[in-house]
Each structure stands twice: as structure tokens, then as C-alpha cells.
Amino acid sequence: MKRILIADDHDLVRETLADYIRNAGEFSVDQASNLDESLDLIQKNGTYDLVLLDYKMPGMTLPEGLLQTLETNADHPVAIISGTASPDVARRALATGAAGFLPKTIAPETLISAVRHLLGGGVYAPQQFLESDRNDGQNPNLTPREMDVLRGICEGKANKEIARDLDVQEVTIKLHVKTLSRKLQARNRTHAAMIARDIDLI
């Protein structure tokens, strides 16, 4: 079973990505919340078959943090994950030696395919993203009520609970979830929470 390390300071994002990968049934996953913890785990447990580093977590810088992880993880691949980095940052990471760049907007099945590709010695970099401008989701322009709903989602509350907290009908909350998800370019409410945390909305 291939060993993977995911390093991200947002618990929800990290655990969601870890669950996606574990559910494939082919990988074991360890987690870290910052660069120093990542390096400590590599030194303690030995090199990982793949390390996924969040671009914005504490201690992480380009190119220093990436180069340090590449050196510590010996000849095994290290890829960058981010929901906020621009295509230019992705290109810099790849030029520095990253084996790949995975946007956090990536679909679960695409994530697994990317992980397999990286483990097989390939380089993963979505061409469409690299050639695009910075994601419009950086400035979602959510209304105050949409922000209230988003906070509830990030706290793990169901639509019914959020509706009760805000003293509105559940159907109204569903509409807000649909609208804010569209603005954030999120596939579902969990994905919306991941993106919101990653771009420091919440």
C-alpha cells in the first residue's frame, strides 16, 4: 500500500482530501498541519511515496519550503495543492521541482487519477488551469446572509439547523447554498466550505 502525506493547515480541507484518497482503498494517508510537522513526519516515518503540500500553510514558502521537502523526502515526488494560488505560482512550483500542482477544486475522481499518475512517476498539471487567469472565486462577493449560511456550513450544521439559527425556512437556506456554491465555483456544500476556508473567507 502506497504511503501518502497530506499537509494542510485547514482541518476540514485536509481531512476531506485524506478521505477521498483513503476511500480509493489503495493508499495509507498521514496528515500534517504545517511544514515543520511535515518534515518531522518524513524524518520519523521515512520517505513517503507522495507528499502533497498546501501552498499557504504555516512555514510553507516557494521555493524554500518546497525544496526543503524535496530534499527530506529524497527521490520521492512532492506536489503542491492549493485553492488560491495563481497559474503563475503553479508554474513556479513546477519549475522548482514539484511533481504536480493540484487545485483544491479538483473532483474526487480526478484527484485519485492525479495521485496515481504522480505515483507512477508522471507530472500532473492541469493545462487549462495553467493557461487561465486567476480564479474568479477569489472575489465571490457573497451577501451578508450568504456569509451567515456559509459560516453555518463551515461549522458542520445541516440546512435545517442553519434555518433555525437564522429564523428562516429551510428552503431559503437551500437557495442560499445553491447561490453561494455557484459564486465560489463549488460542487457542493462541503466543497464550498473547503474553498471558503482556503481563501480565508471564514
From TrEMBL:
Modification 4-aspartylphosphate occurs at: D54
Keywords, alphabetical: DNA-binding, Hydrolase, Phosphoprotein, Protease
Record-linked InterPro entries: CheY-like_superfamily, EvgA-like, NreC/VraR/RcsB-like_REC, Sig_transdc_resp-reg_C-effctor, Sig_transdc_resp-reg_receiver, Tscrpt_reg_LuxR_C, WH-like_DNA-bd_sf
Record GO terms (molecular function): DNA binding; peptidase activity
Coiled coil: none
Start and end residues of each HTH luxR-type domain: 135-200
SMART domains: HTH_LUXR, REC
GO biological process terms held by the UniProt record: phosphorelay signal transduction system; proteolysis; regulation of DNA-templated transcription
Keyword Transferase: no
Domain (Response regulatory): residue spans on this chain: 3-119
Segments passing through the bilayer: none
A Pfam family: GerE
Protein name as annotated: Protease production enhancer protein
Organism whose genome encodes this protein: Thalassovita gelatinovora
